[in-house]
Design goal:
354 residues; 13 helices; 6-stranded mixed beta sheet; 6-stranded parallel beta sheet; alpha/beta
């Protein structure tokens, strides 16, 4: 069976005995075309199954009115919230969002970048995979002066617009909070150090230990993809023998929630025997029992700033010189999993430095 041919405005014009220009103006609600003619044209367009060719229109005016977005996984709370904000903000400016997920595959990320470039997107926003170390596949956007914004997971060295969370301060704040609650033996379950996020959170964790004169123990560090399955494996190692830690800093809330569940299974009380803090302030952390203390990453603000940066770059070409990253603030959300009076005073009033 042959493929059904696409109907065009020429077909609509022929059916109605109108000029092609009249049909085009009617479909675009030109005020010089009568309401009766617009109605006739649109009804015939529906009858024939006509579909506007956005790509052809984009080729004519050199604008597709689309923005590409590549995120690791749409199922995660943080990127999902950013995606929703971006879609709403960009639509206010007349842009549609093409949402792609890399599934944390570098090969998939490369393929998606090429696909979006071929689709003639007007700009691209990217949160890279856990394992992206070669960023050369993004160079075509820079070379063609197409707006490019990296956010959240970002290259450490790249002449591009970067919007990121204050992950160093987040790692410091999480660890400091546990120390101030009396914890002296803290486990940190981090993501892999191939990713900018976790490099900085681990650096913040180490800084807090140093500032409060607690030893950094390699045996209390885990570097892994932050899935439920990996969290369970880590728990089996952590609680295989005593002494158990008195605090755990998990680099995402999925891991923190899994630890809480595991502790319940071995009759370890939270927060009396073990204090837990997560990262991201996933809504699930608030409704667990006990609720989970977490670091909020301000995803709404990040979504707004990424959208604004894209619009700004679309209006004016990017500056050629190296740009300083834009930092989105974090904040501690204290809940029951780390409850108890502070037993240690703050080591310093000034914010920590790397």
């Amino acid at each position: 069976m042959s493929k059904r041919s696409e109907k065009t405005i020429v077909d609509i014009a022929a059916e109605l005995n109108l000029s092609v220009s009249t049909v085009s103006r009617a479909l675009h609600d030109n005020p010089n075309i009568s309401a009766r003619t617009k109605d006739k044209v649109k009804k015939m367009a529906r009858k024939l199954g006509y579909r506007p060719n956005a790509l052809a229109a984009g080729l004519r005016n050199n604008k597709s009115k689309t923005i590409g977005l590549i995120i690791p996984r749409i199922s995660m709370f943080f990127p999902a919230t950013i995606t929703t904000i971006m879609q709403n903000k960009l639509q206010e400016h007349g842009y549609n969002l093409i949402i792609c997920q890399s599934n944390d595959s570098y090969e998939q990320e490369v393929a998606l970048v090429n696909t979006l470039y071929s689709a003639r997107v007007d700009g691209l926003a990217v949160s890279t995979t856990l394992y992206t170390s070669d960023f050369s596949h993004f160079d075509i956007f820079k070379e063609q002066h197409i707006p490019l914004v990296f956010f959240d997971r970002v290259p450490l060295e790249k002449n591009a617009k970067v919007i990121k969370g204050d992950d160093f301060l987040g790692g410091f704040t999480a660890t400091e909070h546990l120390i101030q609650k009396g914890c002296k033996d803290i486990v940190h379950i981090s993501g892999p150090l191939s990713c900018s996020l976790y490099i900085e959170r681990v650096a913040g964790h180490k800084k807090a230990l140093q500032q409060y004169k607690l030893p950094f123990k390699k045996t209390r560090m885990f570097y892994q993809e932050l899935t439920r399955e990996n969290a369970l494996k880590a728990c089996k190692q952590i609680f295989a023998q005593k002494p158990y830690p008195d605090g755990i800093f998990a680099a995402n809330d999925t891991t923190a929630l899994t630890i809480l569940e595991y502790c319940r299974g071995i009759n370890l009380r939270v927060p009396e025997d073990l204090k837990i803090i997560g990262y991201s302030n996933d809504p699930r952390s608030e409704i667990s029992t006990p609720s989970i203390t977490s670091i909020d990453q301000s995803p709404e603000m990040m979504g707004e700033r990424v959208s604004a940066a894209l619009i700004e770059l679309l209006k004016a070409p990017p500056a050629p010189q190296k740009q300083s990253p834009e930092i989105i603030p974090i904040r501690l959300i204290e809940r029951a999993s780390s409850a108890g009076k502070n037993v240690v005073k703050a080591a310093a009033k000034k914010p920590p430095r790397k």
